[in-house]
Amino acid sequence: SLLSGGAAIDESVMDELEAILFTSDIGARTADRLLEDLKQRRGSDRLKTADEVFAALREELSAIVRLPAPSLFDDLDAERTKVVMLVGVNGVGKTTSMGKLAHWAKNKGHSVLLGAGDTFRAAAVDQLQVWADRTDSPLVRGADQADPSSVLFETVERGVKEGFDLVLCDTAGRLHTRAELMDELKKMHRVMGKAFEGAPHEVILVLDATIGQNAIAQARTFVEAIPVDGIILTKLDGTARGGVIAGICDELKIPVYYIGVGEGVDDLRAFDPDEFVGALFDSFGEQA
Ligand code: GDP
Ligand code: MG
Prior knowledge:
Blueprint: H1 11-22, H2 28-43, H3 50-65, E1 82-87, H4 94-107, E2 112-117, H5 122-135, E3 139-140, H6 148-161, E4 166-171, H7 178-195, E5 202-208, H8 214-225, E6 230-234, H9 244-252, E7 256-260, E8 268-270, H10 273-287
Parallel strand pairs: 1-4, 1-5, 2-3, 2-4, 5-6, 6-7
Antiparallel strand pairs: 7-8
Helix pairs in contact: 1-2, 2-9, 3-10, 4-5, 6-7, 8-9
The site of magnesium ion has 5 residues, from helix 4.
């Protein structure tokens, strides 16, 4: 097969490679760039066999997704309270990821305060309350239909005043229009900075691996509105291989911090670029 070819490559191998890349969710731009690169390297006669071409592709993909990603928890022992804001559209797994992060930090002995910034749906606050109870972390919740910015202002202020190590802020994923959502997020971001200089220290964009290439468009929209520091890619426990992340890292240069691999409290993993590219290649192999 294509993946284990020691024989010299011909055009059909390159065609097959092109087909695999374009059906892999990586995104057309990145797939194009990778193919051009491989063609050039082939032309310069360094890549003679299918094995060599695939090794080169693997190398390039690894380089793309290996962006410097500081651990969220590295500096939690510092004096300063760390404020993290989670953003993303409805259903991607913001609230769930927040619960998992709270659990992770608690396990490492840190104190965690949660803020219910998704005030547009009553159920959203109740869902976060479940995670607060589960992780034994206090939750700041506003009155019904409260202004989300005021809830998060209060959250950050309390987090700092009471010396919490980590403050995690949930946000809405849907308003009447996308422009309204982005305006609301910008406002929340600004207001948090008023409660505590420099907050939020991290903005994490949560993306659902199962929606494939739509995640790239989603990421662009958020990045245009607010400064995104890192990504959590959820739902990698299903059939999705998350090829889209290569496109996002390539285009937007935002590192993946964590991946979600289930709905449970422990189903969060630090992103491992090598493991990720390995799994992506396995899926190429299934296609080839
Ligand atoms: P939010 O609207 O962004 O806050 O998303 P939620 O946290 O409410 O999650 C939406 C749904 O996705 C819920 O049913 C979660 O249990 C589920 N979910 C979240 N993360 C994962 C994951 O990593 N794997 C799987 N299989 N389901 C997840
Ligand atoms: Mg939610």
